[in-house]
Amino acid sequence: MSDNHIVMLCTVPDHGSGEHIALALVEEKLAACVNLVPSVVSIYRWEGKITKAAEALLIIKTSAARFEAVRTAISLLHPAKVPEVIALTITAGSEEYIKWITENST
Q: pTM for the whole thing?
């Protein structure tokens, strides 16, 4: 249905940095919507060690054409050296919602 739209995921170390990034993305029309999920626990390997961290999660809805601009903005605003920035293609969704994403992320 909609290979032109994506959901991007980005973990952040705290609510404040997540809100800062989310507001910037929406204000600049890089994303139509960003959900800020307040509490996730991430377990990952970093610099040869297994690490456990409390984080928040950004769920970003945007057009596929905005991926690079969103990635760049996150890289500039995110406090981590290597922020998580991944995208998943939206293959189906409500026609009205997909239209709304298009109108608000271009």
A: 0.94
